[in-house]
Amino acid sequence: MHQKILSKKTIILFAIAISIILYLAGVYSGLYANKIIKKETEENIISLKKETAQDLEAMQNYVNFLDSNLKNMQLEQTFIETLGPEEMCNFSIISFNELTSQLRFYWDRLPFRIEEYERNNKLSEEYLLLKQQYSHLSIRTWILAKNQYDKCKIDIVHGLYFYSSDCENCVEQGEQLDEVNKKVRSSGRDMILFPLDFKSDEPIIKSTPAVMINDKVFQGRLYKAEELIPYTK
Hints:
Blueprint lengths: L1 H79 L4 H23 L6 H7 L4 H26 L5 E8 L6 H17 L3 E8 L12 E4 L2 E4 L5 H4 L5
Parallel strand pairs: 1-2
Antiparallel strand pairs: 1-3, 3-4
């Protein structure tokens, strides 16, 4: 009889011990889980702060870039107005070479076929920022190339190529322009032609693909290389 009572007490004590252990395990698990959640939350907050800081830094860098770009253009224009025709052309060539050197930074980082890349890939913030900077420098370089062609009578082919990500023929048009570029350079002349993302508020361009070569605009359909080459002369 005593053995049976002791056995029951043992079972009860064992059950109580198990309950306490399970309870403490639950408390510990909860505390550990809370610790993990707290750590992950803190890491997420730190990561978010870093990303936000990086985004703000990128935006500030771009604003600084635009501000510097605009000031350079204004200084160049003011300086050019003080020069005679020959000095103006010499300065234009120097500025053109300097901008071309700056553009190599973007040529090394942006895809060769921009219109094809944008059609087939998700665009990152870094890519869009690089492309915006590249576009501004490209326009400045094109303006200088145009001035050399118009005022300095330098034998250079200048142009712009407008594309859009939803354009069916833009990739092929870019390939045709590559052929035009090869043909021009094989004849011993230079060709400066920059791709630009089409904007609906552009007054001259109505649709893509659109090509501007030596002030002549071609748009509304795909133009083959052999159709464009005569206008480079």
